[in-house]
Amino acid sequence: MRLSGRDMCRKLALRCICRPARPARRYYTPAAPSTLKVLGTDYPADSYTNITPTIISKLSLQLHRQPAHPLGTLRMLIESHFPSFSHLSCLSPIVTPYQNFDSLSFPADHPGRSVTDSYYLNKDVMLRTHTSAHEVETFAKGETKWLLTADVYRRDEIDGSHYPVFHQMEGAEIFEATPSSMKKVEEDNEQLSAHLERSNIVIEDIPHITSTNPAQPSHDPRHSEIIALNLKLHLNSLLLELFGGVAGASKEEPLRVRWIEAYFPFTSPSYEVEVFFRGKWLEILGCGVVLQSTLDRANVPSKLGWAFGLGLERIAMILYSIPDIRLFWSRDERFLSQFTPGKISTFKPYSKFPACFKDVSFWLPDRPETQAKMHDNDFCDLARDVAGDLVEDVKVIDKFTHPKTNRDSLCYRINYRSMDRSLSNEEVNAIQDLVISHLKDRFGVEIR
Ligand code: PHE
Predict the structure, then answer these.
(1) What is the mean pLDDT of residues 384-393?
(2) Distance from C-alpha of 23 to C-alpha of 28, rounded to nearest angstrom
(3) Pocket of ligand 1, candidates 17, 95, 99, 132: which has the most ligand atoms within 8 Å of its Cβ, to mutate?
(4) How far is the CA of 288 from the centre of ligand 1 (A)?
(5) pLDDT at 379 over 70
(6) How many other CB atoms sit within 10 Å of the CB of residue 179?
(7) Do 13 and 74 belong to one domain?
(8) Which terminus of the chain has a smaller tally of CB atoms within 10 A, N or C?
(9) Mean pLDDT of the chain
């Protein structure tokens, strides 16, 4: 299997395959505040409210705007690959479900909308789960070629490569659907192809359009082909620039890139791109031909074009050899002082401190209708809220239903490890006790 189930879940479009939709329910138990202040504004809380203090604390950090930070450098490198594009990076992470989902034609019952998958301030306001949330407003402002970098938020499990906040870069270009404008795109395609042909890159391509990955009915299929090719050529040359020096691209070992058919609610045809790195195919981005309804909503119905969204952490972890996604959030000088603006360097681990795991087993309440239901992501958010980045990963290690009482039992293993120091057993026990007491308060569980 190419992708783990969880990797599949990461992609909004595929969430429906592996996550059942869940009804909204209250996250904070009795003492929930009636309003919450986020980035200076008060929001009334309601049954959707599930944003946690840990997440609120990340909203103003803007790692992608710190010049020496690996995410800042990567943003600048990608921006300089597209010099004629507008470069946007200051948009607020607080958006409406309309921006994040409806404006992009997500169906009303899409699981990505559920409170178990996304962070809501209340039912009308949420944290963007992807940079595509800004497509309509950006096209509506008259931008025709742009890059937009931002922090995005998704509720998820915890491990070394998943974090509830990460950074994406959206890129898009739209063109007038006229013969003369399409001719210019074809000329651009010829130039880009010639450049790639001279370079040491092996591309496993797929047909631009197929019956399962169709052109849109309102598009001339020849235009769709030209746009899809333009998208592929731009991205292949970006990947060559980013990975060419690292992943090989020498005579003996060329850079290998492969294109895969994909599905997103807001593009057709759609693709994913993977890069071969240290013996594995790594998924780097999603992209496609922008759905015409998005451009109609943005008041540019006569245009057509492409868009892509790439994950910056995933790429930075490869380029800098950063082994754990939590490191991006480190304020430790031993991390931060290693980097200079605009330069990719290999991260030198300062040491790996010992891990310490603790298990907690409990019965879920036997009258669940009287309590907030607990989802794996609720457990992870709770652990992260209590223990911060000391949580390295969280796993369910046992799950069963008692045959006589019908009660559900769960056992979670939390792996604690600091990136900066050794943790004492007493310290970890105290944190674990706090996790347990919050668990009891919030979800009414009975510890076994
Ligand atoms: N927003 C998509 C995601 O987060 C990526 C994407 C962007 C796909 C633009 C197509 C076009 O998975």
Answers:
(1) 94
(2) 15
(3) 132
(4) 8
(5) yes
(6) 9
(7) yes
(8) N
(9) 90
pLDDT at 368 over 90: no
C-alpha 255/C-alpha 150 separation (Å) is 28
- Answer yes or no: do 172 and 70 share one domain: yes
pTM of structure: 0.88
Residue 402 belongs to domain with CATH number: 3.30.70.380
Do 329 and 418 belong to one domain?
Answer: no
Residue 427, pLDDT > 60, answer: yes
Closest by alpha carbon to 297, among 58, 82, 105? Answer: 105
Instruction: Indicate if 265 and 393 belong to the same structural domain.
Output: no
Ligand 1 atom 9: residue of nearest CA: 308
For residues 245-258, give the mean pLDDT. Answer: 69
Tell the residue nearest (CA) to atom 12 of ligand 1. 11
- The residue ranges of DSSP E strands in 210-263, in sequence order, are 255-261
CA 116 to CA 123: how far, in whole Å?
13
* Total count of domains within the chain: 2
- Looking at the structure, tell me whether residues 88 and 50 fall in a common domain: yes
What's the 147 CA to ligand 1 centre distance in angstroms? 13
For residue range 269-319, what is the model confidence (pLDDT) as tens digits?
999 999 988 788 989 999 999 999 999 999 999 999 999 999 999 999 999
Q: What is the CATH number of the domain that holds 148?
A: 3.30.930.10
pLDDT at 251 (0 to 100) = 53
Rounded to an integer, the average pLDDT of 408-418 is: 94
Whole-number Å distance between alpha carbons of 414 and 397? 10
Q: Give the integer Cα–Cα distance in Å for 182 and 292.
A: 17
Q: Which atom of ligand 1 is nearest to the CA of 310?
A: 5
Does some domain include residue 343?
no
b/e 411-443 (16+ beta carbons within 10 angstroms → b): ebebbbbbbbeebeeeebeebbeebbeebeebb
Largest CA distance in the chain: 74
Ligand 1 binding site (Cβ under 6 Å of any ligand atom): 11-12, 130, 132, 170, 264, 267, 286-288, 307-309
Q: Which of 15, 117, 130 is the pocket-test mutation for ligand 1 (most atoms within 8 Å of CB)? A: 130
Domain range spanning residue 388? 356-447
Evaluate whether residue 346 is within a structural domain.
no
Both 391 and 255 in one domain: the answer is no
- pLDDT for 115-133, tens place per residue? 999 999 999 999 999 999 9
CA–centroid distance, 129 to ligand 1, in Å, is 10
Instruction: Indicate whether 341 belongs to any domain.
Output: no
Task: Look at residue 91 in the predicted model and tell me its pLDDT.
Answer: 98
Q: Does residue 348 lie within any of the structural domains?
A: no
Rounded distance from Cα 308 to ligand 1 centre (Å):
6
